[in-house]
Structure formats: C-alpha cells, structure tokens
Design brief:
Blueprint lengths: L8 E5 L4 H12 L4 E6 L6 H7 L3 E5 L5 H10 L5 E4 L14 H29 L4 E5 L12 H20 L6 E5 L7 H5 L8 H14 L3 E2 L3 H18 L3 H5 L1
Parallel strand pairs: 1-2, 1-4, 2-3, 4-5, 5-6, 6-7
Length: 248
Amino acid sequence: MKFEVSDKVVLITGANRGIGKAILEEALQRGASKVYAAVRNLDSAAPLVKQHGDRVVPVHLDLEDPASINSAAETAQDVQVVVNNAGVLKVENALSENSIEALQFEMNVNVYGLMRVAQAFAPVLKANGGGALVQLNSVASVKTFADLATYCASKSASYTITQALRDSLRDQGTQVVSVHPGPIETEMSHGAGFENAASPTLVATAIFDALSEGRFHAWPDPMAQQIGEAYQSFAENVVEADMQEAAS
C-alpha cells in the first residue's frame, strides 16, 4: 500500500511548532492541497496562515479532550491523511514519587489520544478512499531509558496500538505508518536534556517517504536508523508478518 500526498488534504496534530510544523511545511512542499493545523490554541497557528495563506486551516484539537477530537473530525470531512504528531514527555524514572502520575498523564495523551484520533478519523478516511494514518512514536517505544521510564512505557503502548491499527485499517484501504525518531531539536527534547538533537525536517521527510514507498516503519535520524537496522529482522519477521498465516 503506497500513498502520495500531492493534491491531498492533510491534518496534523501539534502543527504549530517543532516536528509538527516541519511536517506541515513538508506536506505543502510536496503539493498537499490543504493542511489542517490541529492545535490546542487556534491563535498559535496564525503565523502558519500568514505564511501559507488558505492552504493552512487551523482547527481546535486537544488529545486529552475527546469532544474536541470528534469536532475536528466533523470539520475536516475532506481529510485524506491524518498525522498524529502531538505528544507529551515527563522526565521520570520508575522509582520517582511522581512516576505513576507522570505515566497516567503520558498514557492519556500519547496512547488514549492516539486511540481517540483513530476512532474519530477512521470513518472519515474510509469515506475518502482509505488514505493514511501516521503516528509519531519514538525509539523509546523499542528501547527504554531509565530516566524516561514512564515516557518509554507510553510510547511502547502507542507503538502497540499503531501495530493494531495497521491491521484493523488495512481492509478499508488506510495505510498506517509508525515513525520512530531519536532525539529531535524541539522544546520537548531540550526539556529532557538532549544535546546534539537532529533536525525536525528529517522526521517530516521520513514520513512522506514511508508513505510513498509503502513502509510501515520510519526511522528518520542517525540514532533512529542505528536502532532500526538492529530491529529490522524482528520488524519484518514478527511485527509486519502475518502470524496467523505463518502459524498455519
């Protein structure tokens, strides 16, 4: 299953900055006809509208608020590509007194938020021919870092849901891509103490390359690519394999 973004309508959560902004710009550069900038604060998308004109349409969406997600899906009835980029990160290890609270917060946004988006937009994508759903996961979904234990747990869970969505949405013709960046130059990575982070443009390029090439996994930056190379055999032979078929 392959998908080209040219002349398509795209929705991106968290599109006002960082990776989301880079994805928006890449989509427009590749010929997307319109991009919904799905953000918690509509005013934050004003610079994007000023720069790109009516090809960018701000829409309110908060991953913690199911009503806002459903409302966005009602607004964006013409969407053909949904990129769930928004997410949260807490710097907590498993023994921290705040670790359970942190994990609950991260799960609500990073996992339940993904599920809410998928449930709201899957019927829209189906009605528009199938389209594509892209989830921003992380290398932290396959490798745990002790000081980011709760974040890693949430991203591992979101990766699991993404795998399930790949299978669940296949019959309606929706391509699903799971994106696994390493540290990327964003406010989030600065807050987590990462140095020498990679450019967000690498993530944006990897997403649309994966769509056009029909790949489920995308490993955008040097750190991610190193992990992806080591993970490749497991991904191909287990994650992406039809295990029912293999069992028979």
